Amino acid sequence: MRLKPTYIFLFVFLSNLTSFAQIDPSLLKRIPKDTVKNILNMDALYNRPALNINKTPISIGGYVEMNWQKMTTDGISEGHQFQARRLSVFMSSAISKRVKFLSEIEFEDGGKEIAIEFASVDVEFHPLVNFRAGIIVNPIGSFNQNHDGPKWEFTDRPISATQMLPGTFSNAGAGFFGKKYTKNWMFGYEVYLSGNFDNSIIENTENKTFLPAAKNNPERFEEINSGEPLFTGKFAIRHNKIGELGISYMKGIYNKFQDDGIVIDEKRRVSIFALDFNTTIPKTKTFITTEFAWIKVDVPGTYSQQFGDRQYGGFMDIVQPVLKRTILGWENAVLNVACRLEYVDWNVGTFNETGGNIGEDLWSIMPAISFRPTSQTVIRFNYRYQKQRDIFGNPPAITDGMSLGISSYF
Predict the structure, then answer these.
(1) Which of 183, 225, 294, 398 gives the lowest tally of CB atoms within 10 Å of its CB?
(2) Where is pLDDT greater, at 20 or 76?
(3) Residue 177 contacts residue 42 (beta carbons within 8 Å)
């Protein structure tokens, strides 16, 4: 939920931080993130390190991301840039037996934007049947659920997950989730009805079909443009020796098709299908995670072919630990080499007039080196090489450059 950084909000937030600071440090204890193998991407919201106040049900934690980068596109560069990407603070509370509350507040770009990314009450009736209501993160793909900066070896979030899919897309809504495991197998599901997209996905400054534009509309937390809720569902299956496979689907009507009971337009739908998979190769400890998504949007016939009705794309991360030992006093410090491969096509199809392929696509390769003094902190160095074509398929714009960043839980 996007908020204006008002004095009232900051006063309340800082007052709470001050009250925590006045507590005797001896009453605080670190609650490590869950190390049990039986976890899924859907558990990422609770699978975080946090600081617990002794004899209270409240815990608090968060993470920070900052980096330096220098990028060049077709020989033109804006020079050296230091970026305070985000500061996320999460607070949770065990309200009573099998009733929990969790919230995450994110400050982006040095506080230019403040977002309530997650704030829900979870009620457990049975491990397979849990009710959730509040501001939820719609579980489309895996990154939308498991996006914390310290978990990744790259300073930038995946292009397909943020510029094609609406990354960290959250809405007011409610639904059910649950999971079950037996021996090496685990099954999980989530199903929600929530706030929806709106006309901004085809009426935006990008001048193309662009789902992330819906995130800029704070009114989606109060009303649904079409009056019809967005459905989001995900099923995940995991084997401890193979990995986790997730299948997710999202569908809703995005346009205002009636006003005061009078039909003014036909119903126009947006639907998304996504697959994600992650695994660790036991012998080499190589970690692989990938996600691909396919989007279909009912674009009005009066719009030009500049607005695509089909999109697809995804990414694959390969992370290889090369050294794990005590380094400079840090026990079990890890040095990794990694690589991210990305592809996005914002306009799948051919021109009606010529039959030629419509451009508007991008591919990128990003090798990386990362150092983890602990599992909760990562220092990462990335190099990006990227080619992006315009709608007419002209010679691609070439972007390359380096970035160096740090991200850590606290």
Answers:
(1) 183
(2) 76
(3) yes
Torsion 368-371-374-379 (CA) sign: negative
Do 179 and 47 touch, CB atoms closer than 8 A? no
* Number of alpha carbons in the 13 Å side-chain half-sphere of residue 350: 6
C-alpha neighbours within 13 Å on the C-beta side of residue 36: 12
Which CATH code fits 2-409?
2.40.160.10
- Hey, what are 227's tokens? 């009056």
Q: What tens digit of pLDDT does each residue of 337-356 get? A: 999 999 999 999 999 888 89
Separation CA 378–CA 127 (nearest Å)? 33
**Total-model pTM:** 0.88
Burial class (CB in 10 A: 0-12, 13-18, 19+), 74: exposed
Euclidean distance between CA atoms 288 and 362, whole angstroms: 22
Of 48, 245, 250, the C-alpha closest to 146 is 48
Q: Which residue's structure tokens are 């986790």? A: 244
Residue-wise pLDDT for 365-408, tens only, equals 999 999 999 999 999 999 999 999 999 999 999 999 999 999 99
What is the distance in angstroms between the CA of the first residue and the CA of the last residue of the chain?
23
Question: 372, 334 in Cβ contact below 8 A?
Answer: yes
305 within 8 A of 351, measured Cβ to Cβ? yes
Task: Express each pLDDT in 228-279 by its tens digit.
Answer: 999 999 999 999 999 999 999 999 999 999 988 889 899 999 999 999 999 9
**Selection from 67, 71, 70 nearest residue 84 by Cα:** 67
357 DSSP 8-state letter = B
CA distance 153 to 298: 36
3-state secondary structure of 57: coil
Three-state helix/strand/coil letters over 228-283: CCEEEEEEEEEECCCEEEEEEEEEEECCCCEECCEECCCCCEEEEEEEEEEEEECC
Using CA atoms, how far residue 106 sits from 116, 120, 158, in Å, is 6, 15, 18
Contacts with 60 (C-beta within 8 Å, 6 or more apart), sequence order: 20, 50, 51, 53, 89, 90, 91, 92
Report d(CA 89, CA 168) in Å as an integer.
15
Give the model confidence (pLDDT) of 164-215 as tens digits.
999 889 999 999 999 999 889 999 999 999 999 999 999 999 999 999 999 9
